[in-house]
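Fold Annotation — chain and its backbone
Encoding — discrete vocabulary of local shapes
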Amino acid sequence: MTQWSLFKLAVIFLTRIPITLTASVTDTDINQSSRYFACVGVCIGLVMALLLWALSLVLPMSVAILFTLGASLLITGAFHEDGFADVWDGFGGGWSQQQKLDIMKDSRLGTYGSVALLVLMLSKFHLMLTLSGNLFSLLWGIVLAQSLSRLSATSLIGKLPYVQLDAQSKVKPVAKSLQLASRAILYLTGIAVIAAAFVCSVLTFWQVIALIVTLWFTRLFCQYWFKKQLGGYTGDCLGAAQQISELMIYTFLVVSLI
């Protein structure tokens, strides 16, 4: 596949945007498309930021943020939120590794997952509302959160063994390993986004360093948590890592900018 086709494949995987590919897709293509997950996050962030700005012109900020969060769920099909809820259901309700995996692949939503989703969405809403005192920072924060969280989650691929059989998995990972070229493109995208935020005076040099350290510790926590609970990761775990990273980015911005 061409690089443009790989990017479109990444969009298809992470969103509900109606894009078609004429060429047949192989497992190798799917693996290589993960290099553009952070790029897709940039696009999602830009759409959300533009929508929030437009809505804020005619609606109270709290309503604009709520509608923007709702729109993001429609764009992505609540893809990562589903994995987040499944992880909490599995880790909270299962004792053995197999019990946890069985719960996570169940399409029904349990108490742990429901409560975790409620806390997650309320936390996002209030953090974004707190940041809205400076609309420019909030809009940039959305782009940072959407892109860097996907970078953080995708970078977990290859760091842990994949523990769920493809035939049993409800949410399959897009890749079980990251080639050096894919990892380089992934990190370069993150560097470009952070550099742009620095150039636009959204973040100072030391805030950039602190954000990178925060994301590194967040990934380290997710890696330890998944290894302790499952001995590895599943597709649901990657979704949970993305949501946790996104929440930590918003939290960091509130602490550092407000």
Summary: The chain has a mean pLDDT of 92.
